[in-house]
Write a structure and sequence with these properties.
Helices cover 47% and strands 29% of the residues. By secondary structure, it is of the alpha+beta class. It is elongated.
Length: 68
């Protein structure tokens, strides 16, 4: 195993996850506000699951996103 390659590949994957996740969350929040499901002052509970079955990884990361 080349640790530098692993590090770079993990970073590339996490960048893709971060950019995609942010875009999806922002889009969903705007739609929810426009449709009246939530108010622009809400705090939204979020949960991300990281799963890599080949190496036995299953990690859940929870948090909150405050809109104001």
């Amino acid at each position: 195993m080349n640790e530098d390659t692993l590090n770079m590949e993990v970073r590339k994957y996490l960048k893709k996850v971060g950019v995609t996740s942010q875009r999806e969350i922002e889009h969903a929040v705007v739609n929810a506000i426009e449709s009246g499901v939530i108010k622009g002052t809400a705090t939204i509970a979020v949960k991300m699951t990281l799963n890599a079955p080949a190496i036995g990884l299953n990690c859940c990361i929870e948090g909150d996103i405050a809109l104001e």
